[in-house]
Amino acid sequence: MGIKRKRIVVKVGTSTLTNEMGKSNLRTLDHLARVLSDIQNMGHEVLLVSSGAIAVGANKMHLPEKPSQMRMKQAAAAVGQCENMFLYDKFFGEYDKTVAQILLNAEDIEQEVKRENLANTFFALLEQGIIPIVNENDSVSYTEIESEEKLFGDNDMLSAVVSVLCQADLLVILSDIEGFYDADPRLFRNARLISRIEEITKETYDLAGGAGSRRGTGGMQTKLKAAELATANGIDTIVTNGAHPESLYDIMDEKKVGTLFVARGK
Ligand SMILES: Nc1ncnc2c1ncn2[C@@H]1O[C@H](COP(=O)(O)OP(=O)(O)O)[C@@H](O)[C@H]1O
Ligand SMILES: N[C@@H](CCC(=O)OP(=O)(O)O)C(=O)O
Predict the structure, then answer these.
(1) What is the DSSP letter of 208?
(2) Residue 154 CA to ligand 2 centre (angstroms)
(3) What integer pLDDT is reported at residue 214 of this predicted model?
(4) Does residue 52 line the site of ligand 2, with CB under 6 A?
(5) Is residue 218 part of a domain?
């Protein structure tokens, strides 16, 4: 029997990668590296879209909080990206895996020639059993951090763009919450998890609020946009909690986890 959902893209947000102190959450990073390595050993192809550069960099630079000035955000991203890749290289290395860093701007996707080159790079890496780790190129492209006209908006959207580009079978967005609720559970205690969404409509967006912590960006609004793009391109999308990366095993076994946004045309 062939492997279902062979190629998966996993996106992990700042709120999962860092702790309350703004420092790297080493336990989660290690768990994530172990589970993704294991899933690759089971015959799947894995791509990781990882946020956290700005928050981790700000912490390493001893800034009192996440910077608001653009130049400081870009500086923090340069420091934090380096730290994150160091940690990923170390943790994935423990499980005998090689990782590669890909940093993207919107132009890299918009221009056809660049897009093709980029897809070829991803395919070459996957063919070699390497795990690509993707982030926005924040230190170069301020538009991705701030502009209204940004294509990615944030890493949720970037993960959907990468999923489409790589013709992934599944996108998993790991956040600091179990999935998509009928209201933001941080504000409404009685909010209920929605386990399956067949179609994302205006009413769905009405249920989604912004970021839940000072570390996160975009909240459920951007996750819905990402799910909309991915599902429109035939890619199932799951939003679930990244605190327990082991749930990825259940996802690969097609068990019910978090919220499934069903691919269109299925
Ligand atoms: N309808 C909703 N269901 C679940 N979470 C929601 C909803 N609306 C807003 N949120 C908020 O979205 C947050 C997750 O997004 P975000 O803070 O950007 O994290 P990440 O770093 O994972 O992208 C949750 O902690 C929650 O407070
Ligand atoms: N590219 C930025 C992350 C932006 C972003 O989308 O953050 P998040 O909502 O935590 O996924 C960084 O690495 O800090």
Answers:
(1) -
(2) 6
(3) 61
(4) yes
(5) yes
176 lines ligand 2 (CB under 6 A): no
Residue 100 belongs to domain with CATH number:
3.40.1160.10
Number of domains making up the chain: 1
Which ligand approaches the C-alpha of residue 223 most closely? 1
Q: Is 89 marked as binding a ligand?
A: no
ipTM exceeding 0.90, yes/no = yes
Least confident of 48-57, 86-95, 152-161: 152-161
- Is 266 among the domain residues? no
Q: Does the Cβ of 180 fall within 6 Å of ligand 1? A: yes
> Quick one: pLDDT at residue 209?
77
- For residues 63-82, give the mean pLDDT: 93
> Domain for residue 2, yes or no?
no
The band of 1, judged by pLDDT with boundaries at 50, 70 and 90, is very low
Q: Residue 86 domain-assigned?
A: yes
What number of other Cβ atoms are within 10 A of residue 238's Cβ? Answer: 23
Q: 197 CA distance to ligand 2 centroid (A)?
A: 25
Q: 47 is in which domain, residue-wise?
A: 7-261
Tokens found for residue 127: 């063919």
> In angstroms, rounded to a whole number, what is the distance separating the alpha carbons of residues 6 and 12?
19
Check if 50 has its Cβ closer than 6 Å to any atom of ligand 1: no
Q: Is residue 172 within a helix (H) or strand (E), and if so which, with residue range?
A: strand 170-175
